[in-house]
Design a protein that fits this description.
- It is a single chain.
- The protein is of the alpha/beta class.
- It has a single domain, classed as Spore Coat Polysaccharide Biosynthesis Protein SpsA, Chain A.
- Helix content is 28%, strand content 27%.
- Strands 1, 2, 3, 4, 6, 7, 8, 9, 10, 11 and 12 form an 11-stranded mixed β-sheet that branches. Strands 5-13 form a two-stranded antiparallel ribbon.
- Strand 1, helix 1 and strand 2 form a beta-alpha-beta unit.
- Helix 1 crosses helix 4 and helix 5 crosses helix 6.
- The protein starts with a strand and ends in a 10-residue tail after the last helix.
């Protein structure tokens, strides 16, 4: 059975100011996620599942159904705040979704095979999808998951700070810990992350970081459901709390239920963290098309 690609597309980007998941960047009007889907299909993925909000379902289907018809199966899942709360009383002041791990959990009934998870607004590169497909087809098991590790220096925005999951691997190349650094930026000739107290710490450009490109066995759904229940009891009353994928992964590792392979890639990541990033994304895609990495019309 071919692996599935699960695309996290339910979020609206407050910093970008628009529905960037359907912003057109390619020479024939392609979105960033078009390139991810194209790379996934040619790497051997068989189904694309979108996690979206119902209020832009129509736009998504109008854009992607004609492109993907006959190329890959599609499905749509909605991240509803009430999903999987199992009677928990949602605080009235809660307005934002529960986070990325909850979004993945919402796809439980749509996926029965090994699958990858990506963000809709990040360009990951062909190499990453080929490595992810190889893992999902040959190594993924209930006790073996994966994360694609990008070189930090290839994931920095020129227009402000970024948040990255800094990965620490053990001697066997498995994830030992993932530390979320919420303020990473270039400072002179080096890359630093800033703590809440204002202190700065240097990071090497080749430090492996997670860009939310995960490889999972369907067993992750039961694990996530249990963890989400605990999360609600501990943090559900905080209207800003979020149930992130690394929370589930960290529990998976620390409870010794399995390992997470860190799969390195030298691919250049790019995305629209800030509105000012958009021209650079467009230029990068045009350059890849000019080099022959992609056709000038992906779905022609």
């Amino acid at each position: 059975m071919k692996p599935t690609l699960l695309i996290l597309a339910a979020g609206m980007a407050s910093r970008y100011g628009s529905l960037k998941q359907i912003q057109q960047f390619g020479p024939s009007g392609e979105t960033i996620v078009d390139y991810s889907i194209f790379d996934a299909i040619r790497a051997g993925f068989g189904k694309i599942v979108f996690i979206i909000r119902k209020d832009f379902e129509k736009e998504f289907k109008e854009i992607f159904e004609p492109k993907l018809k006959g190329r890959a199966a599609t499905d749509y899942v909605y991240q509803e705040m009430s999903a999987f709360v199992n009677g928990y009383s949602i605080p009235a002041e809660r307005t934002k979704p529960w986070g990325t791990a909850h979004a993945v959990l919402c796809a439980k009934d749509a996926i029965n095979e090994p699958f990858a998870v990506i963000n809709a607004d990040d360009f990951y590169g062909r190499d990453a999808f080929e490595k992810a497909a190889a893992f999902l087809n040959n190594q993924c098991k209930p006790d073996v998951y994966s994360v694609i590790g990008y070189e930090l220096g290839k994931t920095i925005s020129e227009h402000g700070s970024v948040s990255r999951g800094v990965c620490a691997a053990d001697s066997e190349g498995n994830l030992a810990a993932i530390n979320e650094r919420t303020k990473i930026y270039k400072d002179g000739g080096q890359i630093v992350y800033e703590e809440g107290d204002g202190s700065k710490h240097a990071l090497s450009p080749d430090t492996p970081v997670s860009m939310n490109f995960w490889g999972f066995h369907p067993s992750v759904f039961d694990l996530s459901e249990k963890q989400f229940s605990e999360f609600l009891q501990k943090s559900g009353d905080n209207p800003k709390s979020e149930f992130f994928i690394p929370i589930v992964v960290d529990h998976f590792i620390r409870s010794k239920q399995g390992v997470v392979n860190v799969i390195p890639t030298s691919a250049q990541w790019f995305g629209v963290t800030y509105k000012e990033d958009a021209p650079g994304v467009q230029a990068s895609l045009n350059a890849l098309v000019a080099k022959g990495e992609y056709p000038d019309n992906l779905w022609k």
